[in-house]
Design goal:
Structural class: alpha/beta
Strand content: 5-15%
Radius of gyration: 26 Å
Distance between the termini: 61 Å
Organism: Candidatus Cryptobacteroides excrementipullorum
Helix content: 40-55%
Protein name: Alpha-N-acetylglucosaminidase
GO molecular function: hydrolase activity
Keywords: Hydrolase
Number of helices: 27
Oligomer: single chain
Shape: globular
Length: 725
């Protein structure tokens, strides 16, 4: 490790300690009062004089003492007690209850646990579109508490930046109409921020810009209060096209096409070597600091899934040097955080020579890389550990917020241990870059737990997970989770992870890459895990979620074989077979709809009502709802991203996914009756029209919500288990 790098780490650790030390007790106590208000007075929070992150637990009479070197470590200690002594889950969702025992268990022997890394990163640009666009402060407050409880120290904090940009672009002479039209609709802002698209479903309403700025002030204040270092954005080169009219001599280029969007939605890139670049960077960082403060670490990603204007190594080095130089000129303490996704996504252009040039042009220790998708590809092993720049090992785990059981549990464990063993002194931290929250929350809790020297084996960790979901030591639930983590959670998540039920209908395959139904586990193991869960008598909310979630996955998985049997009957001209399997396919949708209706985690109404909640008038409410519906279904202005963010949610299942497959079944059946070929192309045109119409708020969506999760699951389980036999 270089001397500079050591100094930077020391400065970061000390400044973080000082920033929260005086308010540690009150900050963590306030967290406890929010999460477990009836029990908060039973906890005593005390400081540990330690320069590294650690916590201690012990009983003092009837009370529980939680010690930590800072507020973040104290929060982790509190959560460790809740998880492993109270068998309690604190979810990242506000709507999930925190279910506590009637009396607090004692800590029989003093516990002391140290962190294995000082930094724990969380979030992804995309999470702000696939999960968070409609959140208000109440939802953010719970989530920030969840991050603190799980030891996150570096959360991505990009909410509200449009208010900053609005002031910057006004200063440079653009009109209000030009600026707000440059922005996309709310749910698509992450891809605008990453220089992928402009203008889509804009202009962005002024009330949204203002309200998000107010929300960001609360977010960063609470994150800092809980000992975190929010990662705010910096200027990476993305500018409104109209800026060229004001600065005709500035070096600007149109970026490459992205996501199937038409030419009118392409972004414009200002060369970092142009003198205007540093001016805009200074204006942006000064205005952002005025509005939101700064912790001197900035996210900037100039080439996410788009081409650099040049692939010459010297030019790439010059660009990264000037990007960092513009940051440090505006803030001498600046550090740059960069996604490593671009190196994975475009290995043709990002050769080792180009990566080395790009990274090496920034002073060592001032560019922190996120190794974005380590459960699949570890870039640190391909780049000589990022050519000495600090990097964070990240688990991605979910694309698009898809509701798919995915995550290679044991592989993740092995790779994290390998990184700690051989990742080098510039391994800066551990974290996650999930695109959406999805249905696999436990995987993120597991990854963040691996940042601490708990002494717990994976088998013990899984048993504790089962216990807190069941609320007791239930052998059936423990065995179910053993089956799940050993035999179901075996594959990394991929783009388009989704059951075929969510796919645009077709006779074979999956029509488009955005819905890949491949799985690395057997249906027998999934069914066994579901059956074991149903043997429990628990009524814990986390357990009921598991019952619904595992059953939902099973139904989605068996749909593939039904579709294939339907297609075989069609090819054979077997009308009776087409009718039989068509009925079974639609029956799966009905059963899935009934099952997911039993848990609020699968309600489309939550998404839509939250979106409408940002509007003051019916027109505004309809605008937000259309934007919310669009992201989950057609996504953009062409079929290229259709269904990427698919969700097996009640309302979507019955009125969108089932409706498409019902039209498909009816058209295929009619083709068999008439002795002609099914016309997929003609059908696609019809379906595209339906898909677009569904995104309109005027298209009525009926929601089936409520029901007995265990009773419904047992009925459906018995039905399909019987058919299987």
């Amino acid at each position: 490790m270089s001397k500079l790098f050591k100094v930077l780490i020391t400065i970061a650790a000390v400044s973080g300690l000082v920033s929260c030390r005086t308010g540690d007790d009150s900050a963590v106590r306030a967290l406890a009062e929010r999460v477990i208000p009836e029990y908060a007075d039973m906890f005593i929070f005390e400081h540990l004089e330690d320069t590294s992150d650690c916590f201690e637990l012990e009983s003092r009479g009837r009370k529980i003492v939680v010690r930590g070197n800072d507020c973040n470590s104290m929060a982790v200690g509190l959560n460790w007690y809740l998880k492993n002594y109270c068998m309690t889950t604190v979810s990242w969702y506000l709507s999930d209850p925190v279910e506590m025992p009637s009396a607090l268990p004692s800590v029989k022997e003093k516990v002391r646990i140290k962190a294995r890394t000082q930094e724990r990163f969380f979030l992804n640009y995309c999470t702000f579109g696939y999960t968070m666009p409609w959140w208000k402060w109440e939802e953010w407050e719970r989530f920030i508490d969840w991050m603190a409880l799980n030891g996150v120290t570096m959360p991505l904090a990009i909410t509200g930046q449009e208010a900053v940009w609005q002031k910057v672009w006004q200063k440079h002479g653009l009109t209000d109409e030009q600026i707000r039209s440059y922005f996309t609709g709310p749910a698509h802002l992450p891809w605008h921020r990453m220089s992928n698209i402009d203008r889509w479903q804009g202009p962005l309403p002024q009330e949204w810009i203002d309200s998000q700025a107010d929300l960001q002030k609360k977010i960063v204040a609470r994150e800092r209060e809980l000992g975190m270092t929010p990662v705010l954005p910096a200027f990476a080169g993305h500018v409104p096209a109209e800026l060229k009219e004001i600065y005709p001599d500035a070096e600007m280029t149109r970026v490459s096409y992205w996501g199937g969007f038409a030419d009118g939605y392409r972004c414009t890139f200002l060369s970092p070597m142009d003198s205007l670049f540093a001016v805009i960077q200074k204006d942006f960082l000064e205005e952002q600091t005025r509005m939101f403060g700064t912790d001197h670490i900035y996210g900037a990603d100039p080439f996410n899934e788009i081409d650099s204007p040049s692939w010459d190594p010297e030019t790439l080095a010059s660009m990264s040097s000037h990007i960092y130089g513009s940051m440090s000129a505006a803030d001498p303490d600046a550090r740059w955080l960069q996604m490593g996704w671009l190196f994975y996504a475009d290995p043709v252009h990002w050769t080792q020579e180009n990566i080395s040039a790009f990274l090496g042009a920034v002073p060592e220790g001032r560019l922190i890389m996120l190794d974005y998708y380590c459960e699949f590809t570890e870039i640190w092993k391909q780049t000589g550990k990022f050519y000495r720049q600090p990097y964070i090992w990240c688990y991605l785990g979910n694309f698009g917020g898809n509701t798919m059981l995915a995550g290679n549990f044991h592989t993740v464990s092995t790779r994290i241990e390998d990184a700690f063993s051989d990742g080098g002194e510039n391994l800066y931290g551990l974290g996650s870059t999930l695109e959406g929250f999805g249905v696999n929350q436990f995987m993120y809790e597991y990854v963040l737990d691996k940042a601490w020297s708990t002494g717990m084996t994976d088998a013990e960790w899984v048993e504790k997970l089962a216990d807190r979901h069941a609320g007791c030591q239930d052998e059936n639930v423990r065995e179910a989770w053993k089956v799940l983590t050993d035999s179901v959670y075996v594959d990394y998540s991929v783009t388009g992870n989704a059951s075929l039920t969510c796919a645009h209908p077709c006779m074979e395959g999956n029509w488009l890459w955005t819905t890949r139904h491949d799985r690395g586990y057997s249906l027998e193991n999934l069914l066994r895990a579901w059956g074991l869960l149903l043997e429990s008598g628990s009524d814990r909310d986390a357990y009921l979620f598991d019952v619904v979630n595992v059953g939902r996955q099973y139904l989605g998985d068996i749909f593939l074989s039904m579709r294939d049997s339907f297609a075989a009957a069609y090819r054979a001209g077997d009308l009776a077979g087409v009718e039989k399997y068509g009925e079974k396919m639609l029956g799966i949708f009905d059963d899935m709809e009934r099952l997911v209706a039993c848990h609020r985690s699968f309600y489309l109404s939550t998404w839509i009502e939250a979106a409408r909640g940002w509007g003051q008038t019916e027109e505004q409410k309809d605008y937000y709802e259309k934007n919310a519906r669009t992201l989950l279904t057609v996504w953009g202005d062409s079929p290229a991203l259709t269904d990427y963010a698919s969700r097996s949610w009640t309302g979507l299942i019955s009125t969108y996914y089932k409706a498409r497959w019902q039209m498909f079944i009816e058209d295929a059946m009619q083709a068999v009756k008439e002795g002609r070929l099914f016309d997929q192309k003609k059908f696609d045109e019809r379906i595209h029209e339906f898909e677009r119409s569904w995104t309109e708020p005027s298209y009525v969506v009926e929601f089936s919500e409520g029901g007995d999760a265990v009773g419904t699951a047992k009925e459906i389980y018995a039905k399909y288990n019987s058919e299987k036999r």
